[in-house]
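SAMPLE LOG
Freezer: B-3
Tube label: C17
Construct: single chain, 425 aa
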Amino acid sequence: MRKLFLDELDATALQQLKLDWPTWARLKQRPPLSDWRTWLILGGRGSGKTRTGAEWLKGVALADPHYPGSSGGRVALIGTSYEDMRDVMVEGESGILAVHSKSDRPQWISSRRELIWPNGTIGKLFSSANPEGLRGNQFGASWSDEICKWSNLEQTWDMLQFCLRLGKYPRQVVTTTPKPLKLLKKLLKDPSTVTVRSATLENASNLADGFLDYVEGIYAGTSLGRQELDGEIIEGSEHSLWRRERIEASRLEHAPELNRIVIAIDPPAGSGSRSAACGIIAVGMAGDGISYVIADKTLEKATPDKWAAQAVALYHLLEADLIVAEVNQGGEMVKTVLHNVDPSVPVRSVHASRGKWIRAEPVALLYEQSRVLHVGRFAELEDQMCSITPDGMADGVSPDRVDALVWAITELALNKRAEPRVRRA
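STRUCTURE (predicted):
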């Protein structure tokens, strides 16, 4: 039916259909209906965020009522450099010129870094390399592209905000692949910001054949892939004990035969919907003396019977040798809850007499010495590892997964008392 319909259209109609953005736009590419000052579009590479920004600015510049915002006769385009803006935002395949028909396409005056629409709206280009260049200008709308690449990010952004003062209600669109930057986090928390996130996969039909399979085959699940393909903000602290590049270098697909396996639990202080997560991590040691992280079965907001059942099930699944459980929060109750599930499971209680950071330091050193490897990818655990700070917190919360990891590796690799058991038949 679709082919028959298209076959009946002449070249002019086909071109008009091609440029009819509402027909092709995904829901996330359509402007939010609510009131907003900033439309923040976080996306992976090739997710369609550039096309979205160009289409919105086109609609505002041409006073299309379907696009919220008023140009006030002047709009701004801001990017990393003039070269990037010319090649991507203006002349690119998804840029300003490409999304217009010949009749409404703006005149591009490269030497003046200006776009002039047929209705008189003027678009000015500004580089983040020169924040002061914005001073003295005023606009009704702006499109900022790849702000996480900007030099002088804070200064450029602040200058832009002072310039958005034309029209009834100035608005701005931001399109970027995210990074854990202070300004981006501030925008995410701003009540006047509407945020949408798009992964590269969502735009697969507009990408070259084989591209997605190739890049996902290499980068899927990695911190780089989560950032560049999924559009996630990958957190990290410059003060953390772990670095993502070290974790990536410590990764493999399969573990060798393991002589000993430990399940470590970091129970929450409370239980139910108000409790923190219960960290449940499995680590094994091979004959080479290397510890292999093999499972993360952490539970969020679980009751004691649920996290105990989860830990015991993992113990049997992996044919583990021991469950190590921190008892600071629950005392003997922790061991009791586990034995209520299965009295035969060996449990060793451990008590934290030092802070989380101090306990984690010798474990982090083992990573630096390539004596701990990750079998597969554990995104949430690795996020905590790269976010933990000297106060023992990770992004303001207790790092339950890291605590369990530290207990397991301490038991296997750092405690002299730990003797391999005979494997169960």
